[in-house]
């Protein structure tokens, strides 16, 4: 037998990165960021912007962990979020009901939040569309949650298959959501320069009529390929 946990466990003091680092990711596609992170960093591919809502954002992660059919932790996170925060609501992928609707997201917008991400569901799609607030989720359901706890705010969570910690940078666009761990922000920003240059060079070649990826000619001519023509 274990003791009942507290309703909420909250870390109030969040070490957020300097705004200049966050701004360094503004307007950068998630695919470029993933390439600068050696091909990884994206959340579960089912997490996408709700139809009719803004599909791009960048901000600092404020994670919260919510139990099944419960959003007490998210309510607390909204009450504590700072301008520029992205609320990351982990639900362990629960799909029995929504974790949030338009009213709570409206409060988050009023507090200056940059966006919302969950591995669960949302509700009130039409009203969320009217908010013009970035909301990324795996889907929509009219079912509503309770507010019972337990839950956590500001502590590390796993959302969409990846760990997310307070102070990480979160970037969303139509392709999905990418998490840049705080400890890697500088290295990823530095790597983006090389990614941009490589992409620009390849795009110019494609627009100039390139007929095959540059590396394929050597592979096709090598002894690593066996042809079985008849």
In short:
Helices cover 28% and strands 23% of the residues. The chain has seven helices and 14 strands.
Keywords:
9-stranded mixed β-sheet; elongated; 7 helices; 14 strands; 230 residues; alpha/beta
Structure description:
This protein is of the alpha/beta class and 230 residues long. The strands form three sheets. Strands 1, 2, 3, 4, 6, 8, 10, 13 and 14 form a nine-stranded mixed beta sheet that branches. Helix 3 links the parallel strand 3 and strand 4. Helix 2 crosses helix 6. The radius of gyration is 21 Å and the shape is elongated.
The structural domain count equals 1
User: What is the fourth-level CATH superfamily?
Assistant: Ribonuclease E inhibitor RraA/RraA-like
- The CATH topology assignment is Glucose Oxidase, domain 1
- The helix content is 25-40%
CATH class: Alpha Beta
Let me know the number of strands. 14
CATH level-two architecture: 3-Layer(bba) Sandwich
* Tertiary shape: elongated
Contiguous low-pLDDT stretches (5 residues minimum) are none
Q: How much beta, percentage-wise?
A: 15-25%
Q: Summarize the biggest pleated sheet.
A: 9 strands, mixed
Average the pLDDT over all residues and give the rounded result.
94
